[in-house]
Design brief:
The complex is a heterodimer of chains A (324) and B (333).
Chain A lengths: L3 E15 L7 E16 L3 E5 L6 H8 L7 E6 L2 E2 L5 H4 L6 E4 L13 H12 L7 H11 L16 H13 L5 E5 L7 H18 L2 E6 L2 H7 L2 E6 L2 E7 H6 L4 H9 L5 H6 L30 H5 L5 E3 L2 E3 L6
Parallel strand pairs in A: 3-8, 3-9, 6-7, 7-8
Antiparallel strand pairs in A: 1-2, 1-4, 4-5, 9-10, 10-12, 11-12
Helix pairs in contact in A: 3-4, 3-5, 4-5, 5-6
Chain B lengths: L1 E14 L2 E14 L3 E5 L6 H8 L9 E10 L2 E4 L5 H4 L7 E4 L13 H12 L4 H14 L5 H4 L9 H13 L5 E5 L7 H18 L2 E6 L2 H7 L2 E6 L2 E7 H6 L4 H9 L44 H4 L5 E4 L2 E3 L2 H4 L5
Parallel strand pairs in B: 3-8, 3-9, 6-7, 7-8
Antiparallel strand pairs in B: 1-2, 1-4, 4-5, 9-10, 10-12, 11-12
Helix pairs in contact in B: 3-4, 3-6, 4-6, 6-7
Classes of the chains: A alpha/beta (324), B alpha/beta (333).
Chain lengths: 324, 333
């Protein structure tokens, strides 16, 4: 539980914005991920939460080198992979996989389920014991699909079943680390619970580590050991799950937790809610100082001039001048 | 006063594979000024119900039956029986609707002011300048900063939350007595969702309108609704006052939905209690209770009755009815 499988240091990903015309030049950068650091231990699940546009998906994609990082370092099992070329990454891909959000667009509609899941073996030129078909059918069974549906097409499955196909595909090469990018957001609650339970079981059975990206704090609480809260490309607070939910230090974490409606009419109507004003600022031109200062009720002069570092506070790490 | 009374509404869509029974014989009513939540998962028929009421389904592709008695500004009308051209007079004036996706429900080529002014001009014979003032007033009410200059902005110049505010301003421009809000906050982030739900609550008391809130989120329902209809496979399976529903869910599906939500206010458990299986095909619904194939308690009823016979929606208390043999207390082993 203590050896880090993944170490991320000051990782940044900027997307250049080009002006129109023949002589297009870079006008600015969309600072999607702006210097984040964390470690992920073997067998652990780290939740990465935040609102749309906070950079959580870009962070996940950059860590898997699906995007080239702008700066910073990514170490996977002690190996610095920051500047690895795609061909050098290829053997490592058996170790790191991804589960996508949308089970409708992440499966090729013209391929059968069998072809989709076995593609991983083909790309890596691997033959599992007992042959590809047997291995795929075992995987299908493990994720709760009927192995006889090997030759069916994605449209014949419901959303929850398609997400199971995506999970089987990610598991095919027996990876050690999986980035789950909003794996249950597109599903109905009753189905969502099935998939969350499945992910829980698979982690224990296969000894997986997850980076679990989501906007739904209740699901993240359920599945994660530690949680990092992102806002505008930066980590605001990183803490063990229990600590983060019981004792949030950062004003943004407090507001985020308070905004989630509770499924209980009596509690929901009597609790005090913190309602943030305004919207998330544009990541091309983020506020100076603390990026959250434009919406924060505790904001003072220092918050607009100097950026707080992520520092240890009890069991948590917090980036705030006035933590709770 | 009963504002809207829907009786025996059914909607079917013929397809080459058979008729998709999206809504099956549902009845409900809503009083002036109250909030009725319709909650259910995708495909349970909650959106189709309201599209039918608004006359937004194509009569060539949908088979609609039933009645919907509505108290309009000039007397009682049947929303389902009235001709499309006559419904125009009430739609946007007595009843209006806000949609889920604020990105695609505003026209990108027209300024938001023009779109709100148009909604006002259709129903009021006034100078355009009067409508413009009304639009600015509404934009201010829904919390758009500096409405007098923002009225000439285009949809792409607003964020998602702000666009939903613009949609709300447009829906309220004629002072409707009923607002249908179809998943109004689903596309929004949770901090923005909290803003919009608060705004709707404030506007409801200011405009004294009734709201039909369509949602899949039982948390949103808990905070906003007076009464709740739970839908499953095109039928209302439970209908109750919001406090009764959460205190004493009387249908295993409602109970299952409540149990499957991971909750922040309760101690962490290792496993979520999922409902096994998935909703039935709407082309061939099971003969008995539509939830029976997934129900963990159907064996409590003797003789496999749940799979053979459809239970009626019957009263459990004055403000609570459910469609279930178990809570009805009949034929229990």
């Amino acid at each position: 539980m203590s050896t880090p499988i993944l170490e991320v240091t000051n990782l940044a990903k900027y997307f250049p914005i080009q002006s129109q015309g023949i002589f297009s030049r870079v006008k600015g950068d969309n600072k999607a991920v702006n210097g984040i650091s964390f470690t992920l231990n073997a067998g652990e699940t780290l939740g990465l939460v935040g609102e749309s546009g906070c950079g959580k998906s870009t962070a996940g994609r950059t860590i898997l080198k699906l995007e080239e990082p702008t700066s910073g370092f990514i170490k996977f099992e002690g190996e610095d992979i920051t500047n690895y070329s795609p061909s050098k990454m290829k053997p490592l891909r058996t170790q790191m996989q991804m589960i996508f959000q949308d089970p409708y667009s992440s499966l090729n509609p013209r391929h059968t389920i069998g072809a989709i899941i076995s593609a991983s073996y083909e790309i890596q030129k691997l033959t599992p014991d007992g042959g590809v078909k047997l291995a795929v059918q075992e995987l299908m069974e493990r994720v709760g699909l009927n192995p006889e549906h090997f030759n069916r097409y994605p449209h014949e499955f419901s959303g929850g079943q398609r997400q199971r196909i995506g999970i089987a595909r990610a598991l095919a090469l027996k990876p050690r680390f999986i980035v789950c990018d909003e794996p249950v957001s597109a599903l109905d609650v009753s189905i969502q619970a099935q998939v969350v339970n499945l992910l829980d079981d698979l982690r224990d059975d296969f000894g997986l580590s997850y980076l679990f990206i989501a906007h739904d704090l209740s699901v993240v609480q359920h599945i994660s050991n530690r949680v990092a809260v992102m806002y505008l490309g930066k980590i605001m607070e990183l803490a063990p799950t229990e600590e983060l939910y019981q004792n949030p230090h950062h004003p943004y974490t407090q507001a985020l937790l308070s905004a989630i409606p509770l499924p209980d009419p009596i509690l929901e109507r009597k609790r005090e809610q913190i309602i943030l004003q305004g919207d998330i600022p544009n990541p091309v031109n983020p506020p100076t100082g603390c990026v959250f200062n434009t919406r924060c009720w505790k904001s003072q002069e220092i918050c607009r001039t100097s950026e707080p570092a992520l520092v240890q506070l009890g069991a948590s790490q917090v980036a705030c001048h006035f933590p709770n | 006063m009963t504002l809207l009374h829907v009786r025996n509404l059914s909607v079917g869509f013929p397809t080459p594979d058979g008729v998709v029974h999206a809504v099956n014989d549902i009845s409900f009513s809503i009083n002036a000024g109250e909030t009725l939540a319709i909650v259910g998962e995708s495909g349970s028929g909650k959106t189709v119900t309201n599209l039918a009421l608004m006359g937004l389904l194509n009569n060539n592709t949908a088979q609609i039956s039933g009645t919907a008695t509505f108290q309009s500004h000039d007397g009682e009308i049947d929303l389902l029986g009235i001709e499309g051209s006559k419904l125009q007079k009430y739609r946007g004036r007595d009843i209006s609707m806000i949609f889920q996706d604020p990105m695609s429900s505003l026209h990108p080529y027209y300024s938001i002011g023009d779109q709100i002014i148009e909604a006002h001009q259709v129903h009021n014979q006034v100078e355009p300048e009067v409508s413009r003032q009304r639009a600015i007033e509404l934009l201010g009410l829904v919390g758009i900063p500096d409405p007098a200059s923002r009225v000439d902005s285009y949809p792409h110049q607003f964020s998602g939350g702000m666009r939903q505010r613009v949609m709300i301003a447009m829906a309220l421009v004629n002072n409707p007595s009923l607002l249908i809000a179809d998943e109004p906050t689903t596309a929004l982030d949770v901090t923005v969702q909290a803003q919009i739900l608060n705004l709707l609550k404030d506007l409801q008391s200011e405009f004294k309108m009734a709201i039909i809130l369509i949602t899949h989120d039982l948390g949103v329902v808990a905070g906003a609704a007076d009464n709740v209809n739970v839908m499953y496979a095109g039928r209302i399976v439970e209908s109750a006052n919001v406090f009764d529903l959460y205190a004493k869910p009387s249908m295993p599906y409602t109970q299952g939905l409540l149990d499957s939500i991971p909750r922040l206010d309760q101690p962490h458990t290792n496993r979520l209690s999922a409902i096994p299986g998935q909703p039935p095909s709407m082309i061939s619904l099971p003969p008995g209770c539509s939830f029976a194939p997934r129900c963990s308690r159907k064996d409590e009823v003797a003789g496999g009755r749940c799979s053979l016979e459809l239970p009626e929606l019957t009263l459990r208390s004055a403000s609570h009815s459910a469609r279930c043999f178990i809570s009805e207390g009949v034929a229990v082993k």
